Amino acid sequence: MRGHTDEPQTPTPGSAARTVGGITAIAVLALLAWRYPFAVGAAAVLAVVLFMHEFGHYVTARAVGMKVTDFFLGFGPRLWSFRRGETTYGLRALPLGAYVRVIGMSSSDAVEPGDEHRAYRVKSYPRRLLVVCAGSLMHLVMALVAYVVLHAALGAPALEENRWQVAEVMSQRDGVTLPAGTAGIEVGDRIVGVNGVVTEDWNAFVSQVQARPGESVLLEIERDGARLATAATLAADPETGRGLLGVRAAQAVTYETAGLPTATARAFADLGQAMVDSVRGIWSLFVNFGDVIDRIVSPPGDPSANDDLGTRPLGVFGIVDLASDTSWGWSERALMFAMVNVFLGVFNMVPVPPFDGGHVAIATYERWRERGGRDRYFSDPRALAPVVAVVVTALALLAIGLLYLDIANPIDL
């Protein structure tokens, strides 16, 4: 369906096809949301993140007097649009982000004579920098807000020394049925006693369980600050004869909140550290590119694909998969939201086109050529076309490779 105009419009086969396509896309999304609510929710949040990136460009471009002709949510075939003033707003079939079109982004772009004064290329150096950096700034703002909410409301996760909690509940192992799956034990529980014996220490717990194969035991569990009890009949390891319950452990996590002033200070500290970590991660990606490729081409189920998370990049599918893990709480999701935003903001400033950092580099080079009161200099975009082609191709191949890696060898945190 087309947007409203002053003149009545007659439906066309193209508009009907877009309407059908839009209805189909909505139906598919609704079906996926019903079947995989967390995954679709995580994907929707990621789409909003990319939308807000472009919204930053849109707002700042309008604010400094540039002409914005298009602002669309999604990519691919147009489903719906309307024109308000000089800008066409709309929705496209694939909700994987957004894009904004500003006139005169390069010296070769055709611009109407009456609009030349509103083209990106004729604006001052500070205004051009503001517009091209606005997307990354939006990522940092979103990350900062998430960190504040994390510290002030949700609680920042912190590992506890010498305390453990259940990280996985198993129903079977090597053909042996394990009682943990039917005993009501949940991920995040702390089993603090077995038959009255205190098991705050993991080794003490293991000793108590292994010494009682086939016995019915009373487990004391700590969950969300409350104590409860459950009974379980322990299985026996067919090889060693030792008792088995069926849980894996991880270091215990507590969630700490603070007042708004302290939470804000901690949020800024976290933001700074995340920016440093992102720069290091990007540098590691290039320095250890051979290791990255080895992981991408690893066969399904290869344990070496995830043996070093420092050189194991995560793609969009992997991010959505982790964020949709039902064992994660809102604190973990808020932390990932913040970290992903920081990384996107920093990565987008790599000084190579077509990244926004490439536009910063071009604008800075043009400014340098104008030093000493020289005439305005416009770089030739044709000289950078091969660089853009190489970068886009590399990113496409990397995205495909990471999609395979995330599916064939998913990270299990």
Task: Write a structural description.
This protein is α+β, with helices and mostly antiparallel strands and 413 residues long. The chain folds into 2 domains: 36-67 and 103-154 and 259-413, no CATH class; 157-256, Roll (Pdz3 Domain), CATH 2.30.42. It is 47% helix and 21% strand. It is built from 10 helices and 12 strands. The chain has helices at 13-35, 37-63, 125-154, 202-210, 260-287, 289-296, 316-323, 330-347, 356-369, 381-408, and strands at 68-84, 87-102, 156-169, 172-173, 176-177, 190-194, 197-198, 216-223, 226-233, 235-236, 243-244, 247-256. The chain has a 4-stranded antiparallel beta sheet, covered by helices on one side. Strands 1-2 form a two-stranded antiparallel sheet. A two-stranded antiparallel sheet has the order 3-12. A hairpin with a 2-residue loop joins strand 1 (68-84) and strand 2. Helix 3 (125-154) runs antiparallel to helix 9 (356-369). The chain is elongated, with a radius of gyration of 27 Å. The chain starts with 12 loop residues before the first helix and ends in a 5-residue tail after the last helix.
